[in-house]
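tl;dr need the bound structure. longer version: we got a ligand (flavin mononucleotide) that a collaborator sent over and nobodys looked at where it sits. i said id run it. heres the input, straight from their email, havent touched it
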Amino acid sequence: MAYNVPQSKEAFLKMCEESGTAFPYSEDLSVFNKEITIGGKTLHNRIVYQAMEGCDGTYDGAPDELTKRRYMRFARGGAGLIWFEATAVLGEGRANPRQMYLTDKTRDDFKRIVSDIKEEGIKANGFEPIVVIQLTHSGRYSKPEGVPSPLIAYNNPIFEKDNPIDKSRIVSDEYLDTLHEALVKNALIAKELGFDGADIKSCHRYLLSEILSAYNREGRYGGSFENRTRLLTGAVKDAKALTGKDFIITSRLNAYDGFEYPYGFGVSPNGGITPDFTETKMLLSKLVENGIDMIDITMGNPYFNPHVNRPYSKGGYEPPEHPLVGVQRMLDGISELKKDTPVPIISSGITFLGSVSANVCAGYMEKGGFDMAGYGRQTLAYPDCANAITSGANLDAKKLCICCSKCTEIMRKPGGTPGCVVRDNEVYMPLYKKLVLGKE
Ligand SMILES: Cc1cc2nc3c(=O)[nH]c(=O)nc-3n(C[C@H](O)[C@H](O)[C@H](O)COP(=O)(O)O)c2cc1C
C-alpha cells in the first residue's frame, strides 16, 4: 500500500493516528531564523540542504553542467548551509565514473563552484550560504569504471547473499592508513578552496560507516570499539588539528544501520534490529573529545533498507512499516542522541513529512531535539523550500517531493544522473523515460 506524503495538517494528524505515531508540532517557524555559529562560521538560518549526489560530474570528477545547475538552484533556495555531495578522495573509491573527485586537476573547478554558490546566494538572498564538502570512500559500492569494484571492510552475508565478494577485496590496515591521510589532506585542501567545512563521511554503509560494524575483522581497524572507530575519530582529530578553528570539521554519521549484530552498528549484541545507541553514544562523546564541530545524523542503507534511510511513498519494495514510523525512528533517535551531545546536531529523513515538515522540525527544535533541519529529496523537488520556511509560509503542496523514488531509479541505472522527475520534469522526465522506461 502506497502512502501519499501529507499535504495538510489535517491529513498529517490522520496519518499519525493510523500509523500509531506522534510528533511534536509548532505553528511558529521563527526558530528557523535563529543564527548559529559553528566552527567559526555563522549560519544565517537553521536549514541544511543535505548532500545529494547527482552522478553528473565530468569523468575527471569536476562539477559539470547539471551539477552547476543543481547548486545554483540550491544557492538561490535560501538554506543556511549547503552540504556539497559525496566527493571521492581516492579514485578507486568513486561510486560511479562521474562522481565528484578532488584531485590536482579538478581543484580549480571546486574553487569556482564554491565561490559561485556563495555569490549566487548573496545575489538572491543577501547572505552567504555556508558550504561543507562531503569527503568519501564508497567502499563496497565503489564503481569507478561503471562496474562494481567493491572494496570492503569485511565479508557481510546480508549484502553478499547473491553476490559473494572475494576476500581479496577486503582492504588492508595499510590501505586504511592511506585513506586516513587522504581524508585529512583533502579537508585542508577544501579549506584552501573556499569551503567552510569538511565532512568525514561515515554513513549509509560506505567504507567508514561499514568499519563501525567490523566486529569480526582482525587487526587495528576491527574487533573492539576502539579499533572500529579508529579511522573516523582519528581522521576527525587530525583534520581538526590541521584546519584550525575557523573551519568546520563534521561527520555525516550513521547512528543506526538497521542490520543485526554482528553486521550492523547501533544494534544490540544480543540480537534483533531495534536501535541500541550504547556504542553510538560512546562514539559521539569520542568525536566531541576529538574536536568535531557538529554532527549530521542519519540511519540505514539506501540499497538494502531504504525505508529506514528515506521513508517513501513508492519504492523498490513494499516497506514493512508505515513511512511515518521510519520518520519517527529517525527523529526521536536523533533527539535521544542530542541529549548527551554538546555540539550542534542536524536531522535527516524529513522529506516524507511533506507540507508539515517545517512544523514538525520546529516542534523538535523548540524542545532541543536537534539544532538544524536537514532536507534531502525535498531540495531536488522544491529547491526554494528554505526561503518559504524562513519567510514563515506554509510549504506549497504543489511543489513538494512526493517520495516516489524516481530520482533513485535514475541513479541506479548506468550513467543515470538523478533529479526530480515530477517537479523538474523538463530536465529529468526525458532521462527517466530513456533510462528507466527504455523509451527514447
Ligand atoms: C538522489 C540522491 C542522492 C543522494 N546523495 C547523497 C550523498 O551524496 N551523500 C549522502 O550522505 N546522502 C545522500 N543521499 C541521502 C540524502 O542526503 C538523505 O539522507 C535522504 O534522502 C533522506 O532524507 P530526506 O527524507 O530528506 O530525503 C542521497 C539521496 C538521494 C535520493
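gonna send this back to them w/ a short note. Residues 405-440 form one domain.
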